[in-house]
Amino acid sequence: MCVGLSAKVVSVKDGVAMIDASGAKREISAELLDDLEPGDFVMVHAGCAIAKITDDDKSESEKLSKEHLS
Predict the structure, then answer these.
(1) 33, 51 in Cβ contact below 8 A?
(2) Is the pTM of this model over 0.85?
(3) In sequence order, which residues have a C-beta less than 8 Å from that of residue 13 and are 6 or more positions away?
(4) Which label site among 4, 36, 42, 62 has the fewest CB atoms less than 10 Å from its CB?
(5) Tally of helices (H runs) and strands (E runs) in the chain
(6) What residues make up the domain containing 28?
(7) For the domain that residue 28 is a member of, what is the CATH number?
(8) How many domains does the structure of the chain reveal?
(9) Beta pairing class for 41-45 and 24-29
(10) What are the pLDDT digits (tens) for 15-42?
(11) Percent above pLDDT 90 for the chain
(12) Sequence-ordered strand ranges (E) for the chain
């Protein structure tokens, strides 16, 4: 089983994205995704953005995270 983390893209430059994952910021590889822009939400696994996520995906992820932490 793989575990991914949803995060908001803050900036992208030269194949590297700065992300914000619930307040924790870090750099990840953005080379697997085309046209990634600040404000996009991505699924991150092993230091790489592996997929863009939609607003529906984001809402569901946030709901599940809140339920898990409660």
Answers:
(1) yes
(2) no
(3) none
(4) 62
(5) 1, 5
(6) 5-69
(7) 2.30.30.140
(8) 1
(9) unpaired
(10) 999 999 989 999 999 999 988 999 999 9
(11) 61
(12) 5-13, 16-21, 24-29, 41-45, 48-53
